[in-house]
Amino acid sequence: MTVLSVNVNKIAVLRNSRGGALPSVERAARVAVEAGAGGITVHPRPDLRHIRPDDVRALARWLPVELNIEGNPFAPPNDRGYPGLLALAEEIRPAQCTLVPDAVGQITSDHGFDLARDATRLEPSIARLKALGIRVSVFVDPDDANVAQAAAIGADRVELYTGPYAEAFAVGAPAAALSDCARTAKRALDAGLGVNAGHDLDQTNLGPFLSAVPGVLEVSIGHALIGEALYDGLAPTVRNYLAVIAGAR
Q1: Does 35 score more than 90 pLDDT?
Q2: Out of 70, 159, 218, 228, which one is annotated catalytic?
Q3: What's the structural domain count of the chain?
Q4: Which of 9, 46, 190, 200 is 20 to 30 Å from 52 by CA-CA measure?
Q5: In whole angstroms, what is the distance from residue 8 CA to residue 43 CA?
Q6: Active site annotation includes 70
Q7: Quick one: pLDDT at residue 105?
């Protein structure tokens, strides 16, 4: 069954907007895990605007499910306390590291790597992570004709960027975007890659996505899930997602 990995970045956004320790990233992660989530995702950025390296360290000390750390492997360390993605992964040894081409200061991820252009540059980072026993996923566009190149450079999985699908679904015309995602997932599977997905997935569009796209091993969901949880409660919201996933099998 598809694993739900809950992204807790937005909890850190709320905490950082006020200062102090509340709401607690760790407590939110515990609630999500106790409700059945199979993973926790964090995406620490160099400007430390939400998840911070110390949050990642705290989660890694006790988390009983997979930890997925996302980030740009080419973003350098800085004097604000960001050690760089590869150094943080080397310290923490998460189950999975997802490589994302977000620029410093970018509000949110909005595109995947161009594997025709970026593969050679990514290969040493992938090798370094895999030498640590970390599963590597590469964030790719939903219509990437070169997705098989991720396997050639050593990646284990790709994560389909589902923002365009979510936008198309919202206006009632998801067919073309779903077709792109399904075709790219098939290419990835044929190349021996696992398939993850994430970005703007929610309770409404997740089921149709999983029904149409083959072999999705994991969905990483944060923004919509936390927003829905403000109304419905975090634990019931996680259970709702798990029900959608189960219903799509």
Answers
A1: yes
A2: 70
A3: 1
A4: 200
A5: 9
A6: yes
A7: 67
